Amino acid sequence: MTTYLITGANRGIGYEHCRQLLARGETPIAVCREASTELKTLGIRVISGIDVTRDEDVAQLRSQLKGEPIDVLINNAAIIENVTLANLDFESIQRQFEVNALGPLRVTNALLGNLSRGSKVVMMTSRMGSIDDNTSGGSYGYRMSKVALCMAGKSLSHDLKSQGIAVAILHPGLVQTRMTGFSGITTETAVTGLLARIDALNLKNTGTFWHSNGEVLPW
Ligand SMILES: NC(=O)c1ccc[n+]([C@@H]2O[C@H](COP(=O)([O-])OP(=O)(O)OC[C@H]3O[C@@H](n4cnc5c(N)ncnc54)[C@H](OP(=O)(O)O)[C@@H]3O)[C@@H](O)[C@H]2O)c1
Hints:
The protein has 219 residues and is of the alpha/beta class. It has one domain: NAD(P)-binding Rossmann-like Domain (Rossmann fold). The protein has six helices and seven strands. The protein has helices at residues 12-23, 37-42, 55-64, 90-110, 140-161, 187-200; strands at 3-7, 27-31, 45-47, 72-75, 120-124, 166-171, 209-211. It has a seven-stranded parallel β-sheet, sandwiched between helices. The model has no long low-confidence stretch (mean pLDDT 98). The structure holds NADP nicotinamide-adenine-dinucleotide phosphate. Residues 7-8, 10-14, 32-34, 51-53, 76-79, 99, 124, 126, 171-172, 174-175, 177-180, 184 line the site of NADP nicotinamide-adenine-dinucleotide phosphate.
């Protein structure tokens, strides 16, 4: 049995990770700001009241997990806000950086003591954070924050390798969640693919940017 910690676990892709992991016989720990009814219904351990942008919340998460090993840390929580060149809202860009780029790094740093040789860290990024794949512009805050997250994931893959900890930088696909107005593939399909990538993650392929379908994405 493997222990997975998932942020943003109350809905969308985070919730589906919890559901599928439970069905597989693993031990998911759901981390969220506020538990949803469907998450409560799963009957798994939930740590609520954790906003990934707040040092005090993440310190609280760390103290609740003190001494407990985590095999897989899935940094999934994020926001998207539409920022265009015609409407450059710098506060929104900053907010997206706080949640999408700094949040995962803050959580990972706080939980380093729970990771050990063989543990894995996942950064749930987006293809919108690929510079080579940007053919349409726009989305300043989301795109910039996800590029920064990709870079954090890559640096972590180097810095944690000697400790035997592998890092995956994953794009789920366009997935039917609140973030996309429920268009794209189902959360079931996306998470089945994401878990296959996490299962296959090791110290040889650490630091790779994958689509949930197995394609390696360009930076
Ligand atoms: N859906 C897609 O097509 C798609 C595509 C590419 C990448 N992704 C990535 O996949 C991940 C999951 O997205 P999703 O589609 O499942 O989105 P979602 O349904 O909007 O869920 C986002 C999750 O993040 C949590 N969250 C937001 N701000 C937070 C904060 N400050 N602290 C803690 N939790 C916070 C939300 O919690 P609350 O309920 O409390 O707001 C929610 O649980 C994200 O990293 C997203 O960027 C999604």
